[in-house]
Amino acid sequence: MSSPGIGIFQILSDLPSGDPAVVAKRAEELGFDSYWTAEHPAMPEGSADDYPAKGPDEPAPEYLYKMPDPFLALARASATTRRIGLGTGICLVPERNPIHTAKEVASLDHFSGGRFLFGIGAGWNEAECTVLGGDFPHRWTQTKEAIHAMKALWTGEPVEHHGRYYDFPPLISRPRPVQQPHPPVYLGSIANPRVYRRVGTWGDGWLPLSTDPAEIAEGAVEIAKFAAEAGRDPSAIHITVLAPGGLCRTRTGVDELHKAGAHRVVVYLESETEDAVLAELETLAGDLL
Questions:
Q1: pLDDT the model gives residue 212
Q2: Per-residue model confidence (pLDDT) at position 13
Q3: Which of 34, 247, 264, 265 is the most exposed place for a label (fewest CB within 10 A)?
C-alpha cells in the first residue's frame, strides 16, 4: 500500500489567520499534498447554537460567521502554487445554484491545471439551508440532483435538465474542467450506512470527519460492497479523512488511519495569525512528513 497523502485544512475567517496564497504556497514547499477550506455563506442569527462540534454549554465559535467564499480562497491559493491539491471541505451544495457552481468548479480546475478536489456536503444548519434555497429534510436528494446537473454541464456540450429541484433548457457551460470527466466528488459526512451507499453508488470518494481507524475500516468495507453491487470499481473510490482540530498530529495516528483504508489524512491548522500558521506548518511537516 502506498504512503498516505497528508493535507492541511484552514478554517479561514476575518481574523488575520493567513492569506491562502501564502499558506498554501508554503504548504506545497514543505511537501503537503493538498490545501482545504470550508464554507458557510450566511448563517441566520442564533442558528449556530446547534453546531454539532461544540459542547452543550459552549458558545458557537465565531469563525462560523466569518468564512470567505471557498472558491475565491482556493483561487488565491492556486495562483501561487503548482502541484498542491485544492479542496473544499466542504461545499454546501443545497445552498448553491448548480449552474453557477459548475462554472466555479470548472474555472478553478481550469486555471489550477486540474488540481481541484470537490468535497461536498448537505449541511447541518437547517435555518441556513432553508434561507438559501435548500430542502433540508431531503437535502441529500437535492445534492445528488445538483451534482447530476453539474456533471452534465461539465461536458461543455448543450445539455438540459428537468428535475425535482432544478429545471433548465439546453445550456452550454465552458471551460470544461481539466480533470475528465470532472474533478473528483468527495462526499463529506459522518459514518453511517446511508453514507456508505451514497459514496459507493455515485461518489468518487468519502470525506469523513473522523480519527477512528475502526470507523474508517468499516466504512471502506461497506463502500466497496455498495460500489461492487452498482457495477463500479471499488478501488477507484478514495477516502480522505478530515482530522479535526488538535487530532491526528503524529505520524503514528496518520499511519493507523492509512492502514484502516484512508488514502489521505487532512490535518487542521489551529493558529490564528499568519506568522503562527506558518510556524505551525513547519512543526507539522517535521512531525508528519
A1: 93
A2: 77
A3: 247
The pLDDT of residue 60: 85
Cell numbers at 97, concatenated: 445554484
161, 135 contact by CB (below 8 A): no
Q: What sign for the dihedral angle of Cα 13, 16, 20, 25?
A: negative
The pTM of the whole model exceeds 0.85: yes
The full set of domains in the chain, from first to last, is 5-288 (3.20.20.30)
Cell numbers that stand for 162 in this block = 428537468
Half-sphere exposure of 160 (CA within 13 A, CB side): 5
Q: Are strands 159-162 and 167-171 parallel, antiparallel or unpaired?
A: antiparallel
Q: Is the pLDDT of residue 173 over 60?
A: yes
Residues with Cβ < 8 Å from 75, sequence gap 6 or more? 108, 111
User: Quick check: 253 pLDDT over 60?
Assistant: yes
C-alpha cell at 147: 451534482
| Amino acid at residue number 4 | P
Place of cell 478553478: 108
